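Sequence only, no structure available. Ideas?
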Amino acid sequence: MKNVTDSFVSLVHWPFAGSFGFNTDILATNPINLSVVLGVLIFFGKGVLSDLLDNRKLRILNTIRNSEELQGGAIERLEKARARLRKAEMEADQFRVNGYSEIEREKLNLINSTYKTLEQLENYKNETIHFEQQRAINQVRQRVFQQALQGALGTLNSCLNKELHLRTISANIGMFGTMKEITD
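Reply:
I predicted one. Tokens follow.
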């Protein structure tokens, strides 16, 4: 810094023309120079700076306006989305309630259907058992009848002679005759 001030000091030794000269006192000359420069800048740069600031202000206002419009649109879309969400939640709840009631109804239908099927199967089983019992009883009756018939035939064959046989046939024919007369 000393070299810079020395170069200005060396300019002081030049011969002066009239009252023109350099003031080497930095403290006295610096505020004056700054005020002159600032005055010139303000005088000439005032319009440019004003235009720049106005343009910047307009851009900021446009950006704020656009942001507010976007915010309004976003709020509107958000409200619509919330309304759709509420509607979807209500429909989901309705489907859930309907689904639960449908499940309960189907469950009851299935239980009733199963009960009816079991009842039918029980009836078929009882009918089958009754049929098999009747068939077994009929088979036993037929065997008993066949055995009784064979035993009676064997007894008759061993006890009956021709004369007794003819009398029995005649008595039976007589009974048939009387029965026929009664029914006519």
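Helices lie at 2-11, 26-159, 162-183.
Hope that gets you unstuck.
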